[in-house]
Amino acid sequence: MNREVRHLLRTGPFEVALDAAIEASGLTLDRLCRRLNDSGVTVSRTSLSYWRNGRSRPERAQSMAALSRLEQVLGLPPSSLVALLGARRPRGRRPGRPPGTLSRRELWPSCGPILAGLDASADPRVDFLSVNDTLFLDEHTGERRQRTRLVLRAASDRVDRYLACSEVDDPAFAPPDLVGVAHARRGRVRRDAASRSLVAEFLFDRPLDRGEHTVVEYEVRLPDGLPLDHYYRRFSRPVGLYTVQLRFAGTPPGRVRRYERAGLRGPERHVEELWLGAAGTTALVAPSVRPGTVGVRWEW
Predict the structure, then answer these.
(1) What is the signed CA dihedral for 188, 194, 196, 202, rounded to 10 degrees?
(2) Which GO terms describe its molecular function (predicted)?
(3) Does the CA dihedral 203-208-210-212 come out positive or negative?
(4) Options 2.60.40, 3.40.1350, 1.10.10, 3.40.50; CATH of 104-299
């Protein structure tokens, strides 16, 4: 058992640890199914695939028996995967979103196809205490970078991840690229050229119980030369404090304004001018943000 698998068996989450253990074993899902079947345990290839990508988890007695045998086949300590499952997930219809919140697919419609294969249920299970975006734009080199810092609080027990969505509006450019992660581990990352979208999964160092906090920082590189005259962030839930820091290298714009929208589209409201310093920097500070969109627009 290699060091990465040993570490993931301590920290989880379940599907990431299982995926790493399967990769380290060198066994295909078909071979795993055959070995389990030879030992008298029946589990389908589809079930194993769903377990390792997070679409479902073993819960029934037959599935738990298969998981115990799978630990043996993969050469893992007894109950090492079982211990990562935590509390049983509720069955039936998922509870509705809390009042006054918006869905991811409502705010990020283009990310729907790549969100479909990921468990996005962690989104309503965290509260955003603060979100800070720093955007760097160099008109000479065409470089565009976005750094984000999130302060999160678990709204329920055993919250172990967060999913971030990002996209490029201009169809002539490629999706953003995740280039750095701090205070969390990089999970699954998916980029879709057709929708120009990026979905990144950030895994916490340990599962959080209700009321516990964590910090996640990450950096996204936007395509060089991407024409930009605005930047905005979408909020599915209320946020205690949102700040945007903009730095323009080269000729700064002549005018910068902030705005808000109740959703992704619609009329702009709370429009106001932002002061732009001589160094080409400005900042937006928005306390008590409601679900919707908060953005900055500039003109040369």
Answers:
(1) -10
(2) DNA binding
(3) negative
(4) 2.60.40
